[in-house]
Amino acid sequence: MDIDIDPSDKPDPEVQSWLEKLGPGLVTGAADDDPSGIATYSQAGAQFGFNMLWTIIITYPLMVAIQIVSARLGRVSGHGLATNIRRHYPAWLLYGSVVLLLVSNTINIAADLTAMGAAVNLVIGGPMRIYTVALAFISVLLQLFVPYRSYVRVLKWLTLALFAYVATVFVVQIPWQTVLVRTFIPHLSWKSDYLTTVVAVLGTTISPYLFFWQASQEVEEMRAESGQRALKNAPGQGRANLRRIRIDTWIGMGFSNVVAFFIILTTAATLNAHGVTDIQTSSQAAVALKPIAGRFAFTLFSLGIVGTGLLALPVLAGSAAYAMAGAFNWRNSLALKPQLAKRFYGIIALSTLIGLGIGFTKIDPIKALYWSAVINGVVSVPIMGLIMFMAVNRKIMGSFTIPTRLRVTGWAATIAMGAAALAMLCFMLSP
């Protein structure tokens, strides 16, 4: 492919503040701590105490690696993951991955909406279902009618909701010496419930929708900035953009993992310490926290569920829409007005509304969330494998194929998720 060199290829001047440089990575990392993720981390802390803290230390570098690779794919090629898969891989692989992603994301949306409505009800009382409906429509309307640049700023501010889980730690008693020891020298177990929880934490932290979202957001950022182009066609822009991606992703995923650590820490120090070991939803965690840690901790925890849900819903619905649009070559961008990308915005609205509808059926949201985790764990493995193959494909990446360190850590993350998926399937099939 011909490469055009013009003045816009020069590296961007370092004039942005550090906060302005944070974008796709920050939002993606924060969205990982959605209400269903909060439920998983809460159960880990409640059931196994401080002995689950080590999992967050392990997942951080693995999560960073695969998200950096995903972001680079989007920024270098100028296309999202689904578009690149459609262009270079068999159709059955593309459609299979997209369908599984759609199913998983929609179920996840259902669980998150239910948790958000319940959290509002816990704090102020009133009709939970009305709150759930209102939150769903607020999320859809924001994506439909708020301009992209303004919407990204809204999502950045919503990441502050996650500080609720950091603040909660400072209103409860924490045995910090024990925490330090158990984080780096945990009591490991080979019992099925312990291993299942490890798998759940890994699967919750490294999820397919995050790959699709961050890659597509890099494309959105490129389109939104005047003079910016796909890096394989404008290599002079590479150094500054790849550095920004690294900083953004390390900080964003660090933020995500710190919050996950604090959620496990809070529930371990309160719920597990007082014999409360069975938590199935984030709302249950908040309720159980109230008599032990007090109303302030309960309120912080509950409000955090609502804030993180508002952040996660557009990421779940948006990643599904980007995947569908890439698979079928539809126009897609949050910067476009709805009438110019009807099918793209239609998927956002439809996945959110179907998720809302699931919450009003007799389907058990806990079982639905479990199956969502199973699907996430299974579908992430081939997608991660595809991402790693695409990241070294010169037809896609040009001269920006990933360096050795990213190949090693990226494949390590893929192998870890493969082992997690295999373990999960073994637990499902065991008598």
Automatic annotation (TrEMBL):
Q: Does the keyword Transport apply?
A: yes
Q: Where does the record place a coiled coil?
A: none
- Would you say which domain of life the source belongs to? Bacteria
Q: Which UniProt keywords apply?
A: Membrane, Symport, Transmembrane, Transmembrane helix, Transport
Please report the record's description of how this protein sits within the membrane: Multi-pass membrane protein
One GO cellular component, as annotated:
plasma membrane
GO molecular function per UniProt? cadmium ion transmembrane transporter activity; manganese ion transmembrane transporter activity; symporter activity
Compartments annotated for it: namely:
Membrane
Q: Where exactly are the transmembrane stretches of this chain? A: 52-71, 92-110, 130-148, 155-174, 194-213, 249-276, 296-323, 344-363, 369-389, 410-430
Q: In which broad location class does this protein mainly occur, judging by the first location in its UniProt entry?
A: membrane
Which InterPro entries does the protein's record reference?
NRAMP_fam
Q: What protein name is recorded for this chain? A: Divalent metal cation transporter
